[in-house]
């Protein structure tokens, strides 16, 4: 049975949204390349985010920090010490298994909160952990052996070398989140932008995590983009802003047409909260494989700025001129995944619509802002292609939108191709157009057609594509 996920993956490949990464070499596990339609979708969703979260708000400014950062950043942030998952190796076949549940159970049974991260390097976990594993009789899914090593912490950060001489370079990391670029620039931005608290800094960029269990298409990959905000506020006001940003993120997804029933909040309970967080909520989506995280909104107190103050010996406090108070700002962090959001928009938009007599059309009901191709201009016959092309040229120049021009195949087939790509409007130029200076506009979802003067197209579409 073909699942919705298989169908979406198939459509993505077939139409040029997403291809397996470096496919001609047999691919690279869980790496994906975004093709001509995919790159437009990503661009449109990032622009939609930037518009609503930054451009339209006077309390927000942007940043594009470097991916490679001084490695002390990651000591201060805690990523060197604890951004890790516990793994254990099968002694016989050397295959690797996650041990997070095991460690959790061991901690629970022993009333211990000792973390495998503390066992990194030379230190080994307590001997009774090994007895605990042996007692569980866990069979290796690869070879059936019962013989395991002790769980070891496996850091999720990608390491690389800065400097050209092998072995002499400085070891640095690819950033596992964009957020720390914001914190280390807090002072610079506060000084130069003259924003007063509460205000926020936004950033879109790549992040890298050596995930143990990537998968589910672009849901979890080792290289991905994040759209993150650090919203700085006065201590004591943070829970109010946490509630505000939760709703703001949810409204952003709803405003881009995601089915309300497929979205929900999930608040982290006390046990799940990071030690520095006093509130965290995820927005979850009902993916074809079940409910899962779409984005997170965390109240991180002043943990990050305090840590950077300690490690850099720089004063990152805020001076409130009105009240003459000095304090380390608290922060709310809404963090959204770009490709994970794209997956949600694609899954949510996908429909196989029953037409008459067992005929079905595949259609992507993408929001106008997200649609990779906004308008397709279709000449009814090759003979009038030049006339249609000048309509295309004029529209694309005045509207500045990504458009398609297609002469190949029957008009019905061309409509179906555009439906699959999620193109909201087709503009058909026929022989009559030569006389009446009008064209037929066909709407994707309703398939309704209307005749319109060519000179009316620009204001009509400008209105349709205002986000
Ligand atoms: P998860 O629990 O799914 O690993 P997380 O809680 O570690 O996610 P955050 O660190 O809060 O995730 O990252 C914020 C957002 O970045 C996530 O909600 C998701 O949209 C995106 N994201 C995180 N890791 C990945 C990944 N490996 N691939 C794609 N997107 C990711």
TrEMBL record:
Transmembrane segments: none annotated. Residues 157-379 form the Aminoacyl-transfer RNA synthetases class-II family profile domain. Belongs to the class-II aminoacyl-tRNA synthetase family. Keywords: Aminoacyl-tRNA synthetase, ATP-binding, Cytoplasm, Ligase, Nucleotide-binding, Protein biosynthesis. The keyword Aminoacyl-tRNA synthetase applies. Catalyzes the attachment of glycine to tRNA(Gly). Substrate binds at residues 98, 177, 224-228, 333-337. It holds the Pfam family HGTP_anticodon. Its EC number is 6.1.1.14. One of its GO terms (molecular function) is bis(5'-nucleosyl)-tetraphosphatase (asymmetrical) activity. One of its GO terms (cellular component) is extracellular exosome. The lineage of its organism: Bacteria, Pseudomonadati, Thermodesulfobacteriota, Desulfobacteria, Desulfobacterales. Homodimer. Residues 105-124 are annotated as: Disordered. The gene is glyQS. It is found in: Cytoplasm. This is Glycine--tRNA ligase. CDD domains: GlyRS-like_core, GlyRS_anticodon. ATP binds at residues 209-211, 219-224, 293-294, 337-340. It catalyses: tRNA(Gly) + glycine + ATP = glycyl-tRNA(Gly) + AMP + diphosphate. It comes from the Bacteria. GO terms for biological process: diadenosine tetraphosphate biosynthetic process; glycyl-tRNA aminoacylation. It is an enzyme of class 6 (ligase).
């Amino acid at each position: 049975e073909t699942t919705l996920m298989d169908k979406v993956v198939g459509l993505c490949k077939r139409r040029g949204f997403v291809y397996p990464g470096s496919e001609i070499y047999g691919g690279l596990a869980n790496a994906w390349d975004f093709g001509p339609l995919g790159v437009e979708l990503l661009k449109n969703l990032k622009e939609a985010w930037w518009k609503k979260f930054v451009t339209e708000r006077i309390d927000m400014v942007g940043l594009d920090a470097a991916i490679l950062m001084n490695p002390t950043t990651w000591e201060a942030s805690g990523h060197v010490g604890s951004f890790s998952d516990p793994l254990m190796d099968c002694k016989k076949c050397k295959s690797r298994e996650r041990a997070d549940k095991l460690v959790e159970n061991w901690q629970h049974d022993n009333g211990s909160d000792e973390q495998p991260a503390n066992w990194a390097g030379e230190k080994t976990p307590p001997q009774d952990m090994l007895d605990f594993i042996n007692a569980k009789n866990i069979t290796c899914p690869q070879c059936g052996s019962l013989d395991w090593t002790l769980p070891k912490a496996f850091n999720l950060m990608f390491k690389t070398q800065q400097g050209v001489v092998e072995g002499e370079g400085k070891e640095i990391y690819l950033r596992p989140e964009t957020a720390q670029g914001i914190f280390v620039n807090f002072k610079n931005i506060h000084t130069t932008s003259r924003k007063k608290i509460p205000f926020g800094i936004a950033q879109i960029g790549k992040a890298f995590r050596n995930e143990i269990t990537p998968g589910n298409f672009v849901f979890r990959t080792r290289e991905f983009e994040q759209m993150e905000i650090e919203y700085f506020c006065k201590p004591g006001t943070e829970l109010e802003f946490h509630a505000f940003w939760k709703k703001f993120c949810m409204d952003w997804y709803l405003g881009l047409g995601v089915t309300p029933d497929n979205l929900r909040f999930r608040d982290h309970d006390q046990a799940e909260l990071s030690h520095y967080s006093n509130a965290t909520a995820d927005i979850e989506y009902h993916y074809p494989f079940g409910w899962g995280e779409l984005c997170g909104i965390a109240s991180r107190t002043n943990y990050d700025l305090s840590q950077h103050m300690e490690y850099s010996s720089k004063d990152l406090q805020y001076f409130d001129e009105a009240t003459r108070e000095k304090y380390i700002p608290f922060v709310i962090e809404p963090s959204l995944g770009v490709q994970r959001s794209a997956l949600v928009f694609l899954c949510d938009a996908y429909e196989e619509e029953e037409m008459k007599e067992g005929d079905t059309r595949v259609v992507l009901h993408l929001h106008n802002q997200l649609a990779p191709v906004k308008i397709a201009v279709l000449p009814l016959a090759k003979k009038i292609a030049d006339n249609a092309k000048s309509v295309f040229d004029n529209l694309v120049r005045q509207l500045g939108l990504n458009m398609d021009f297609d002469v190949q195949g029957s008009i019905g087939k061309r409509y179906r191709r555009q439906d699959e790509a999620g193109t909201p409007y087709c503009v058909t130029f026929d022989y009559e157009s030569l006389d009446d200076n009008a064209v037929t506009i066909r709407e994707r979802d309703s398939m309704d057609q209307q005749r319109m003067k060519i000179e009316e197209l620009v204001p009509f579409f400008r209105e349709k594509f205002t986000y």
